[in-house]
Amino acid sequence: MRFGIAVFPGTWSDRDCARAVTLAGHEPVMLWHKDRDVKDADCVILPGGFSYGDYLRCGAVARFAPLMDAVTEFAAHGGLVWGICNGFQILCEAHLLPGALSRNQSLQFRCEPAYLRVETTVSPFTSGCTQGDVLQIPVSHGEGRYVADDETLDMLERDGRVALRYVAADGSAVGARSPNGSMRDIAGVLNQGHNVLGMMPHPERASEALLGSDDGMRLFESVSHAVRHGDSFANIW
Amino acid sequence: MQGPGENAGAVDIGAGLACVFKIESHNHPSAIEPYQGAATGVGGILRDIFTMGARPLALLDSLRFGPLDEPRQRHLFEGVVAGIGGYGNCVGVPTVGGEVYFDASYRQNCVVNAMCVGVVEHAKLTRARAAGAGNLVLLVGADTGRDGIHGASFASVVLDEASESRRPAVQVGNPFLEKCLMEACLELAGQPGVVAMQDLGAAGLTGSAAELAHRGGCGIEIDVARVSRRETGMSAYEVMLSESQERMLLVVTRERLAAVRETFARWDLHSDSVGVIFDEPRLIVRDGGDIVADLPVETAVSGAPVRQPVGALREQPQDASPPPPPSPWPAGETLLRLLAAPNIGSRRGIFRSYDHQVGGATVVLPGGDAAVVRVPGTSLALAVSTDGNARYSALDARRGAAIAVCEAARNVSATGAVPVGITNCLNFANPERAEVYDALRASIEGIAEACRAFDIPVVSGNVSLYNDAPSGGIDPTVVIGMVGVIDDVERHCTAAFSVDDDLVALLGPIGTELGGSEYLRLVQGAGDGEPPHVDLQLEARVQAFVREAIAAGLLRSAHDCAEGGFAVAIAESCLLGGRGAWVGIEELERESADPAGEAGILFGESQSRFIVSFPREALVQLHDLSSRRQVPFAGIGSVGGERLVVTGAIDVPLSELREAYEGALDAPA
Known about the structure:
Helices cover 21% and strands 25% of the residues of chain A. Chain A is of the alpha/beta class. In chain A, the strands form two sheets. In chain A, strands 2-1-3-4-11-10-9-6-7 form a nine-stranded mixed beta sheet, with helices on both faces. Chain A has a two-stranded antiparallel sheet with strand order 5-8. In chain B, the strands form four sheets. Chain B has a seven-stranded mixed beta sheet with strand order 7-9-6-10-8-11-12. In chain B, strand 24 and strand 25 form a beta hairpin. In chain B, helix 2 runs parallel beside helix 3. The chains are: A alpha/beta, B alpha+beta.
C-alpha cells in the first residue's frame, strides 16, 4: 500500500516516517505542500516538525496550505489521515479533530520516552493492538497539552474516540509524570468517523528495537491491515 | 579528505561516505543575550556543515558558566539551553551530546561552543572555493539588515560594563529559514554548475566573498546595489559588514543559474545574483555604477598582526603539592555529594529539552559516554563526544589539553568506536597577556602530542580569544570534539550495568591522583594541585583493548572514569542500568600503597581507566586479552541488587544515588 507523507516547509519527521513506512514494507510518497493532491495514497501522514516555522500557533498556517484542501476532502470521503505531533496540531487547527494543543504544562520542550495505553481498538490505527496494551513511544514537543471543554472531552470518551492515553510504564495513571499535562492524559484522539487520528508521540521513532522500541510499528501494521481488508470503522457504535 | 581552511573538515568513513564536522564558539554574544547568542551559534555551525553538501546528523554543545547558585549564571545557563533547543528543535537536527561545567573563572565570560556532525557522499562534497571566470555569485536566504554589524570585532574584545550596550551586535536567528535553506542547499550539492557554497558568518559578505575568492585563487566582484535589504538607507559599508543570519553565497555557472534559482524558489527562498568571478585576485565592491572598494584579495584575508607577547608566565604547580585533606564525611556521603555536584550530576534536565531523536538514528542517547548515531542506509554508526576539563588546563595547560583529547577518545572508545578525527575549540582569555599566550601555545602542543599518539587528524577548529574581563579571564578552555566510527551498529556498547550477576572490572592503572579533582573542589572549594598524569602509550593500549573486547562481544558495558573518579563511574553505570553493584577495593588499596588511601582510590581522577561489566563466561578471554595487550585488568565485583556497596567504604541504596544525581542542576525551590 501507499502512504502519502506531507512535506510542509519546516517539516522534519517526513524522512523518519518514510523510513518507518518502508520498514513496514510499504511505499512512501512525499506530498508537497503546494500541491492539491494526495497522489492516490491509501493513508496520508501529516508528520512532525515546525510547519512554516510555527511562529504563530502551531499548525495555524499549515491548515491553509493547498495540500490541506486535498487532505480535508480525502478525509471527508473516509480516507485515512494520521497526524503525528505537528500533524496533530494541524488537524486541530483545520477542525478535522476537536480540541487544541497548548504549551506543555512544564513550559519546556520535552523529548523523552512516553508510555501510551491503547484505549480503543475500533480504529484502523489501533486495530492490531489489544485494548489496554501499553506502547513505548517517545514524545518530542513543546506544545502538546491536549485541551478541550468538558463537554467535548466527555463526548470523546463516550464515543470511544480517545485512542491513546499517557500512562506510567506499568500501565497505571501517569499523574505528575505526564510529558505535557494533557487533560485526562489524552495522547491521541479520533474523529467521528474514526478515519482521522491525531497523536503527539512519534510512532515512527519507535520503529526498531535498536532505537529503543519498535512498538510504533504496531500502529503502522494496523493501518496496512485495515487498508488491505477494507475495514470500515465508521458509525459502528 | 578535507583539513582545516574550509567551512568544516571531512574524514572518509567508508561506504563511499565522508563525515564532515566542526566546532565553533559563540561566547561573547551568549554572554550578552544568551538565547539568541546560543541559537545563532547553532545556526552558524549547521551552515558550516550543509555548506559542504553534508546532511547534519547530530549537534553537540560544550558549555561553561560561573557558579550555578548565582542568579545571573542561572539566567545565562537557562537562556543558552533554551536557545540551543529553540534553534535545533525547530531545524530538526538532533542535539545528542555535549557537556557543561560550572567554575568561578566563567563568571564574566560564559563559553558556548557548538559542534555539528554531518555525512555526505564523496561525490557531493562541496567546497567553498570560487572558480571559473564569468561564473556568477548568488546570495540566498534572508534579506540583509543592519543586525550584527561589527559582530566579529565585538567578539574579539574584552567584555566590560559597556558590553551590555552592544546587544545590537548580537544577531537574531530564524531556524525556519535555516531549515529551508538547508534542504535547498542539500538538493543542490553535487549538481553540475554548482561550483562552490559558502555561508555568511563573521564580517558578513566581506568575509565570505574574500574567503571564496582567496581559496579559489581568483577575484570576486560584489554589487551591493543588487543585495535585497530589509531596511532602507543602508550604506555599502553596512551591507558588506551586516551579519544578518541564514544567508549563503553560491558560485554557479551562467547556464545553471536559472535552474539553481528555481530550486531556491521552490523552497520560497529569495536569491539575488550579486556578483561575478574573474581571474585577477582582487576583491571589488561596487554600488551600482560606483566602485566603492578595490583591493587585493590577499589584503582582505591575511595580514593579521603577528605578536609574541612577553612578560611573566604563569607559575607551574609544584610537584610537591600538599597531601589532599581527608573528606569531612563518610565515603558514602562524599559520593552522594559528588553525584549532586553541578559538574557531575545528571544532565537529563538539559537533554530532554533538546530533541535528541529526530532523524531516527540516535542509537545511544545522551547521558552515557559518547552518543551513537547510525549513518542512514548503512550498518555504520558514528560515536560523538565533546570533552575538556579546564581545571586541569588551568593547572597545566599542555597536560590538560592532552587529557581532553584522551578523554574524548575514551568516551568514543567506550561505545566500541574507533576514533577517526577531532575538531577543537580553543577558548582563552586575552592572548596579549604572556601567560595566556603561553597557555595557548602549550595547549596546541598538548593536542598535537595526544593526536599523534592516537594517530588521528585535527580536521577543523575555531579559536575564541579575549574571553576576559577586568576581574579576570577564563581558565584555558580546550574543547575537543571527537568522531569515531563503529562498523556494525549492532555491536555498540553502553555505560549501563545491564545484567545481574555480571562481573565488574577496572581496566587500566589503579591510580589515586586527586590533583585538580572534583573531590578537592568539594572538600576544599577548589581543585588545586597537580593534574593527573597521562601516559599516552598506555592510554592508547587501554582504549584499543576496550574496542577489541567490545568488537569481540565480550563486554556488556564500558564507562570511563572521569570527574569524580572510580566511585562516580561505578555509580553512573548503576544508575544507567537501574541496578546495584557490589565492589571490593581492599586489593586495590593494598597494591596502590598510596597515602591518599581510600579517598584517592574512590575519587581520584587518574587517567586511562574504564569500569567494565561482562558475563562470567568472558572472564578468561578478557584476562588473556589483557595480558596480551599489556593492559592492567582487575576484577573488583559484580552487578546486582538495589544498592551500591563498596566494601568497608560505601553502602547506599540506588534510590538515594538517583535522587542526588538527578537533582544536581535543579533550580533551588
